[in-house]
Amino acid sequence: MRTLVVGSRASQLAKAQVKEFLGPLRARFTDVEFRHQLILEGGDRDRRSALASVSQASGGAAFSTNQEAALVAGEVDVIVHSLKDLPTSNPAELILLPPPGREDVRDALCGPVETATLTALPLGARVGTSAARRIAQLLAVRPDLGTVPIRGNVPPRLRRGREMGLDAVMLAAAGLHRLGLNDQIGQLLPIEQFPPSPGQGALGIQVRADNTFAIEVLSTAGDLQVDAEVRAERAMLAELHGGCSVPVGAHAHTDGGQLHLYGQVTSVDGTKQLTARASGPAGDPAALGHRVAAELMHQGAQEILDKARAT
Ligand SMILES: NCc1[nH]cc(CCC(=O)O)c1CC(=O)O
């Protein structure tokens, strides 16, 4: 019996993601023992300091560092991340395998279901989110809204939103679905105005590039269409030199052999919004990502991003 040690953060969402990833693999490889190992990150140990520093720490990579160290050291064979939390540059000895099927890519407004929608939120309503992209996108459609910083794992964000009396909290539908929190969703936001963070809803399956056994087994869980889509989105983000904290949205979908990519950059105050689209062969997602990024740059993305980074 061979063993594969699967690492993840200790959050409920991370545990749900590992379960989802391992389900089909356990059924397919009855001669492999899959062992789950939790790896604490700075953001898990000290919740209070994490609240303040999570997006600044290690250039936005606060969720992946201890895990990557454990992977490089050989303590685990694979890390199951939320792909959108992973920086677009991977350490040289680590690679990302094709992710399994993607969850709903959209963002959601959560709160009282009658009022947590774009049209029903009262004038000047307060929405909980700390993400530059979400703040910018919200203000672009509802400049009257106020946004309130709220960080941490998904269930505590919902709880604090209620405690603080916020009108809504903006979260990824993927995490809500995976945690069985669908009943919290007031509205799933339209992709046109609210393209998600690149990679949102997909798992980031990270292994050592030389771990042939892990690659052989875990690749069988991958979905090549999802892989092309998220690679296009992440290539666009990388080309814009964006981390996870820039007001950049991206969404790719496949149609036959064609990959379509939609990209959006929004100023933090929501007053300027650039969008671009392109299509290309599914076999070259990076080229498509670069094309859409180049079009956004041509429209003036650099100035918007420089300003967003300065705030
Ligand atoms: N940055 C935190 C984070 N990382 C992944 C998810 C949800 C799952 C996903 O987007 O894939 C979330 C919470 C959120 O943005 O609502």
Automatic annotation (TrEMBL):
GO terms for molecular function: hydroxymethylbilane synthase activity. SUPFAM superfamilies: Periplasmic binding protein-like II, Porphobilinogen deaminase (hydroxymethylbilane synthase), C-terminal domain. Its EC number is 2.5.1.61. Its cofactor is dipyrromethane. It holds the Pfam family Porphobil_deamC. It catalyses: 4 porphobilinogen + H2O = hydroxymethylbilane + 4 NH4(+). Signal peptide: none annotated. Residues 229-297 form the Porphobilinogen deaminase C-terminal domain. Residues 4-212 form the Porphobilinogen deaminase N-terminal domain. It is an enzyme of class 2 (transferase). Keywords: Porphyrin biosynthesis, Transferase. Tetrapolymerization of the monopyrrole PBG into the hydroxymethylbilane pre-uroporphyrinogen in several discrete steps. This is Hydroxymethylbilane synthase. The lineage of its organism: Bacteria, Bacillati, Actinomycetota, Actinomycetes, Kitasatosporales.
